[in-house]
Design a protein that fits this description.
- The complex is a heterodimer.
- Chain A is of the alpha/beta class.
- Chain A contains 12 helices and 8 strands.
- Chain A has one domain: P-loop containing nucleotide triphosphate hydrolases (Rossmann fold), CATH 3.40.50.300.
- Chain A has an 8-stranded mixed beta sheet with strand order 3-4-2-5-1-6-7-8, with helices on both faces.
- Chain B is of the alpha+beta class.
- Chain B is built from 3 helices and 4 strands, in the order αααββββ.
- Chain B is globular.
- Classes of the chains: A alpha/beta, B alpha+beta.
């Protein structure tokens, strides 16, 4: 499979872009792919803490683009998974420190060494988002079943569709089966009908996302995380496997699946 | 408006979906509810010069269709000010796209 730049975006902040990027990166690396997670949120970097790699940063994305460091010096190898790397964002710079051409060039360089380049996009639709979108071969839109998130996702989808890129795919995050059953949360079908794009995964609301972020151990690394299992399914779909979409399975079943696929 | 139509007990997911569908039409077409109201007033004024219409029940909206979006106006006709051949309709003329 040719190497791919996958940009994870959402429009609205706080819906799970960074969590999705970290978990998909780990799930793909567990399956033997060389993966780099690239934090494009310059000035508000977070992918490093979610992945638990914050203490190992020496150089960042902007250092590489401004040629103060070689790419190899800035890439942080994950000790848990030697196939996984992080390219951190600069924390004390602005989004305008880099442009779309530089992002495309950087990702072209990364493509020579990695199977997957996962770009964690900043929230919003401005400069930072455009930088994250520019190098993308594929776009994943993260949405939670809330009016504000779906509205912003619709805007993002429109912006992606205005480019030459393939249609984005949807990650439905933080779904709560009990609320959906009571008719108090937008259902999978509702969101898909409104946004009219292809679904690539459904991730249940899961407290292990919070506890794993606390520890810098993304949920995919845990044995009993329903959300982690959901991200593994998405990673397998990215690898071209046909993984059936259940309805929102009970967490216990998802956890069992997670264990099964780990073997 | 919808909460009233559906009654207070409407499940909030249904309300969310309807609100989203309305707001997304405005977002996607860059036509605000206010613009649509102005348009409606002008359509009423123009049509009313020729045909007697039930102005209270005119509806102008933008609805998604296969190819994108469609401006749909539903204009109930009371009777024609002209003689014939305009046939009055009881319940709304066909949508003018």
């Amino acid at each position: 499979m040719a190497s791919q730049v996958i940009t994870i975006t959402s429009g609205k902040g706080g819906v799970g872009k960074t969590t999705a990027t970290a978990n998909l990166g780990i799930a793909l690396a567990q399956r033997g792919r060389r993966v780099v997670c690239l934090d494009a949120d310059i000035g508000l970097r977070n992918l490093d803490v979610v992945m638990g790699l914050e203490n190992r940063i020496v150089y960042d994305l902007v250092d590489v683009i401004e040629q103060r460091a070689h790419l190899r010096q800035a890439l942080i190898q994950d000790k848990r998974l030697p196939e996984l790397f992080l390219l951190p964002a600069a924390q004390t710079r602005e989004k305008t420190a880099i442009n779309e051409t530089q992002m495309r060039a950087l990702c072209a360089q990364l493509k020579t060494e990695f199977d997957f380049i996962l770009v964690d996009s900043p929230a919003g639709i401005e400069h930072g988002f455009k930088n994250a979108l520019a190098p993308a071969d594929q776009v994943l839109v993260v949405v939670t079943p809330e009016v504000s998130s779906v509205r912003d996702a619709d805007r993002i989808i429109g912006l992606v569709e205005a480019t030459e890129k393939p249609a984005p795919q949807l990650i439905l995050n933080r779904m709560q089966p009990t609320l959906i059953k009571r008719g108090e949360m937008l259902d999978i079908a509702d969101v898909l009908e409104i946004l009219a794009i292809e679904l690539i995964g459904i991730v249940p609301e899961d407290e292990t996302i919070i506890t794993s972020a606390n520890r810098g151990q993304p949920a995919v690394l845990l044995d009993h995380s329903a959300a982690g299992a959901a991200f593994i399914r998405i990673a397998r779909r990215l690898l071209g496997e046909q993984v059936p979409f259940g309805a929102l399975e009970e967490p216990s079943l998802l956890a069992r699946l997670a264990n099964f696929f780990r073997r | 408006m919808f909460s009233r139509l559906l009654g207070r007990s409407a499940p909030s997911a249904q309300v969310a979906k309807q609100r989203l569908q309305l707001v997304l039409v405005q977002d996607r077409t860059s036509i605000s509810a206010e613009t649509l109201n102005l348009l409606k007033d002008e359509i009423i004024a123009v049509i009313a010069r020729y045909i007697e219409i039930d102005q209270e029940h005119v509806q102008v909206s933008i609805a998604p269709n296969n190819a994108g979006h469609q401006l749909v106006a539903s204009i109930p006709v009371r009777s024609s000010r002209r003689e014939r051949p305009l046939t009055p309709r009881a319940n709304g003329a066909p949508p003018a796209a």
